[in-house]
What we know:
Helix content: 10-25%
CATH architecture of the largest domain: 3-Layer(aba) Sandwich
Strand content: 25-35%
Number of domains: 2
Number of strands: 16
CATH superfamily of the largest domain: Formyl transferase, N-terminal domain
Largest sheet: 7 strands, mixed
Shape: elongated
Number of helices: 7
Low-confidence stretches: none
Structural class: alpha+beta
Radius of gyration: 22 Å
CATH class of the largest domain: Alpha Beta
Amino acid sequence: MRIVFAGSPAAAVPSLQALLDGPHQVVAVVTREPSPQGRKRLLTPTPVAEVAERAGVPVIAANRLGAVTDELIALEPDLGVIVAYGGLVREPLLSAPRLGWINLHFSVLPRWRGAAPVQRAIIAGDQETGTAVFQLVPELDAGAVFALERVPIGRNQTAGHLLRALAESGARQLAGVVDALADGTARAVPQSGEPTLAPKLTLEDGHLDWGRPAAEVDARVRGVTPEPGAFTLFEGERLKVLGAAIAHDAPALPPGRAELRAGRALVGTGSAPLELITVQPAGKRPMPAADWLRGRGADAIELG
């Protein structure tokens, strides 16, 4: 089959690579335009663009598929595949490929439809998530599902770790669906159950509320790591929380009070304390949280 692939971040790379390694022809890759990255803000192609260029596949840089609709239709694809592109497929492009478009989504649909399914699942305290390959329809993430796989969420997994694992397993799942579509054996099942939504995270989603139970605070830290990142406030400045764990064996502290106990940086929550492991003060490098707290020169400080 002739395939058009749309994707942008690292999570889409395993899927693109699986298609490049398969029996079908990827005739073009659509990805978002280069964006400023790093401290020097250098314009950098997306991870998907880099892989496609190395493979010799034509790359179309566009932040909206609507802007390149005519160009994609002219390629006469049999199938469109989209993985974490960051934009919607609308008519007439949606119906242009002979078999339409399919999407690899990182959740067990219909739970967590939207841009941040892995992050929202962890923040909500879900015990499992997964991947789904489904047919794109005009409604957000609502199409019939060709394949679905459930995956447990580890107690210490961050969104970044979990997404990398799902990207690998989901790529194999996606390739299998593409092959089944090619030989006519693919069958899709309508979604069932009550949908939940997973809107894109904002910076404020990473602000920790120390009045919540420790399990909720821990889940939020893991859910927003690495992006947009967890943080608390100290003396009006953001302190990034890069690593933390529930301190079940420590005595309770008032919510938001941070103390150094037995060499550990502990912060009170609505239940058990949370141990801060790695933090990053504003304008500085990441450092052990105990070292940072020791440097405050006080027995206890307040975080907000």
